[in-house]
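ugh ok fine here u go
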Amino acid sequence: MGRILAVANQKGGVGKTATAVNLAAALGAAEKRVLLVDCDPQGNATTALGSEKTMGHGTVYDLLSGARQVHEVVRRVAPPYLDLVASVPDLSGAEVELVHVPQREFRLRHALQAGCSAYDLVLLDCPPSLGLLTLNALVAADGVLAPLQCEFHALEGLAQLIRTVEIVRERLNPGLTLAGIVLTMYDAESGLSRQVAEEVRQHFGDQVFATVIPRDRRLAEAPGFGKPAVWYDVRSAGALAYLGLAQEILAGRGLKEQDHG
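structure:
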C-alpha cells in the first residue's frame, strides 16, 4: 500500500477540504491511483467530488463500524485513478457509538490496511476538531499535511496541531510525521498574508511546501459544480497551484519515511 496522508488542521476555514479534494484530483491527473476518504461528517469533500451524502453506497461510517470493507464502499469518481469513500452526517454519531469499543482509535487504520493495497496514496480529509474521527485518521496516517491560512491567528492553530501530532506519535502511532505545511488563501496584495508566510517559513523552514495556494474565485466556485478546481478550470491560479503541490509530493515531499517534525 502507498502512503497515507491526513489533511488536518484543528482550526476550521483554512482550506483543508479544498486541499484534500484538489490534491487528490491533481495526483489522479498525474496517473497516480488515489483514494480520498472523507472523514468529516459535514461531507464537503464528498459533494465537492459530485457524490451524494447517502448511506446506500456505503461510507466511512461502515468502515469504522466494521460493517463493510473498503472495496464495498469505494465510489469510482474518475476511474481508474481517483476513488472516494464518502461521508454522511450520521458519521458524527460514530464518536459516541465507538466510545466503549476496544481499540477504537485503530478502526480506520485496520480497515485501510486490509483494503488499500492498490493505491499509490490515500488522503484523509479530517474534521476541524480533535475528536475520535480525527484521532482515527492520525492513527491510520503516515504523515500529516497541514493547510495553513495566511491570516491572523494561523500560527496558534498550527501550534495546537503540532502538539496533537506529537501526542499521537508518543502514544498511538510512532510512525506519524509532519509531512508538510501548505500555505493557503494567500493574497499577494495583502501585507498580512506576506507577513504570515514569511514568519511560517522562518519558523518551520523546509517543512513548508514551496507551493503557495492563492485566494482564487474559481477554487470557491468549483464545489458548487461538484468538481475540484483542477477539473472545473485547470488554467485557474488555484488549480495550477494544486498541480504544483502534487508535483512536489510526487518528487518526495511529504512522502519520506523519516520526516519527523
